[in-house]
């Protein structure tokens, strides 16, 4: 199957300015020659690599479309195979007809992600880099995109490769010493290996510590808006989204279910959840909404605690404050456009709950810029951070690193219990192979198929 010539529409299946049909495989150029006619009648196989040619796609004597054809000869292509990209008009029908034409002359439909899979199998990229391709496509914010591009350029691959070298070096020394004790000594080796293991554990722990940060980069900040009924939570959601997403009335308890929206604030993605007002209620439906609000609150990365600044704080306000203690909280004193009946000092008591207290009017839009700046600064410099260091954004990578740490722990235990040296090499080798699954040097076919199945047809 890997020697077949594959073809797929590489652009979205929707009417647009241009469309691209991609082919890859040994016969890609030969098939293109059968369907492409240039005014000069020059054969594509005689053309230089990485050149573009103007002409027509023909289905026998029928003109299918006026096109530009790009030719990329192996191994200097995305897949390291002969690759043809046909740039045509972006109508769904015409793209489909060109695809049917190249398949008529010998290409077969590509499977999801098969172009990238071939790039992996042909050694152009490793598995971690291949996964970063889909991460780039699915990036929801500037920081996720930056992290994914860094991984595509091999940052995580280089790190894992270097750590594997350390592990395999120690494994090889142990095996050599066991097989040839006359030339290799294990005297004092346990102390040396213990130091190596501690250093490796520190390195892997640093990577694992970035995993939650990586999840935020990829998925966005799970942001929950909480407060008692009728303090303006839905109004805050609407002003962040920029549309009337939630129903707003003067009736307390209008929101009874969970509303979730994605908001992009200066390149930072927030997954904002508007919850039912938290309070004691006998209404069955409203009670379900309150229970849901409490569940979402437990897993929140960021809490926007909304209070009615025109009213004195109530027992319910203080109860909610206790629920969110210890979380990343921004306190929003809403309804600043109304007459202020409460003293500001009462709300200042909440400073122990959060360093960030913002006076806003969701109705008028006042204070929202200040809120945006605080969230942005928290993300960059505070509780939620991002920098140019390597960040683990893939759950598969996180699991592999955790398993590696477990193997190194077993090595450490073997050293402490003065076990024979071949016990060390067993767990070291398991750590080495587990790390190999990240970059694809030791990976089952089923796992590779599962990873590439997440891609679109043309990638």
From TrEMBL:
CDD domains (UniProt xref): trmE, TrmE_N
This protein's UniProt keywords: Cytoplasm, GTP-binding, Hydrolase, Magnesium, Metal-binding, Nucleotide-binding, Potassium, tRNA processing
Binding site for GTP: 230-235, 249-255, 274-277
GO biological process, one term: tRNA wobble uridine modification
Cofactor(s) needed by this chain: K(+)
InterPro entries xref list: G_TrmE (IPR031168), GTP-bd (IPR006073), GTP-bd_TrmE_N (IPR018948), GTPase_MnmE (IPR004520), MnmE_dom2 (IPR027368), MnmE_helical (IPR025867), P-loop_NTPase (IPR027417), Small_GTP-bd (IPR005225)
HAMAP family, per the entry: GTPase_MnmE (MF_00379)
PANTHER family associated with the record: TRNA MODIFICATION GTPASE GTPBP3, TRNA MODIFICATION GTPASE GTPBP3, MITOCHONDRIAL
Function comment: Exhibits a very high intrinsic GTPase hydrolysis rate. Involved in the addition of a carboxymethylaminomethyl (cmnm) group at the wobble position (U34) of certain tRNAs, forming tRNA-cmnm(5)s(2)U34.
Recorded family membership: Belongs to the TRAFAC class TrmE-Era-EngA-EngB-Septin-like GTPase superfamily. TrmE GTPase family.
Name used for this protein in its record: tRNA modification GTPase MnmE
Annotated organism of origin: Eubacterium plexicaudatum ASF492
Organism lineage: Bacteria, Bacillati, Bacillota, Clostridia, Eubacteriales
């Amino acid at each position: 199957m890997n020697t077949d010539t594959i073809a797929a529409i590489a652009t979205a299946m929707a009417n647009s300015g241009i469309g691209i049909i991609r082919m890859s495989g040994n016969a890609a150029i030969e098939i293109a020659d059968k369907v492409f006619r240039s005014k000069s009648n020059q054969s594509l196989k005689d053309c230089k690599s990485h050149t573009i040619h103007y002409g027509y796609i023909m289905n026998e004597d029928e003109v299918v479309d006026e096109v530009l054809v790009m030719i990329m000869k192996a191994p200097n292509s995305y897949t390291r195979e002969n690759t043809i990209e046909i740039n045509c008009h972006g109508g769904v029908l015409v793209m489909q007809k060109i695809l049917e034409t190249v398949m008529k002359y010998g290409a077969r439909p590509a499977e999801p992600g098969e172009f990238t899979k071939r790039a992996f199998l042909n050694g152009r990229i490793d598995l971690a880099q291949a996964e970063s391709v889909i991460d780039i496509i699915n990036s929801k914010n500037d920081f996720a995109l930056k992290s994914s591009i860094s991984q595509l350029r091999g940052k995580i691959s280089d790190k894992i490769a270097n750590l594997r070298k350390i592990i395999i070096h120690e494994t090889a020394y142990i095996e050599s010493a066991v097989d040839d004790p006359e030339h290799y000594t294990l005297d004092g080796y346990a102390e040396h290996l213990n130091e190596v293991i501690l250093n490796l554990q520190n390195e892997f722990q640093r990577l694992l510590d970035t995993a939650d940060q990586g999840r935020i980069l990829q998925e966005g900040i799970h942001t929950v808006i909480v407060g008692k009924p009728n303090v303006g939570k839905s109004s805050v959601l609407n002003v962040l989204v920029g549309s009337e997403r939630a129903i707003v009335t003067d009736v307390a308890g209008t929101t009874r279910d969970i509303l979730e929206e994605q908001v992009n604030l200066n390149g930072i993605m927030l997954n904002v959840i508007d919850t039912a007002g938290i309070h004691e209620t006998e209404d069955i439906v409203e009670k379900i909404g309150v229970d849901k609000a409490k569940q979402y609150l437990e897993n929140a990365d960021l809490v926007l605690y909304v209070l009615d600044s025109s009213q004195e704080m109530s027992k319910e306000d203080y109860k909610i404050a206790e629920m969110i203690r210890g979380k990343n909280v921004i306190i929003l004193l809403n309804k600043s456009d109304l007459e202020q009946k409460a003293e500001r000092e009462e709300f200042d008591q909440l400073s122990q709950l959060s360093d960030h207290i913002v006076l806003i009017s969701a109705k008028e839009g006042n204070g929202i810029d200040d809120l945006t700046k605080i969230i942005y600064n928290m993300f960059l410099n505070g509780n939620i951070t991002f920098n140019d260091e390597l960040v683990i954004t893939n759950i598969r990578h996180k699991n592999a690193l955790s398993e590696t740490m477990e193997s190194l722990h077993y090595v450490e235990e073997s050293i402490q219990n003065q076990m024979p040296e071949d016990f060390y090499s067993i767990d070291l080798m398991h750590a080495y192979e587990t790390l190999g699954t990240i970059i694809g040097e030791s990976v089952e076919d089923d796992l590779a198929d599962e990873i590439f199945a997440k891609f679109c047809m043309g990638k």
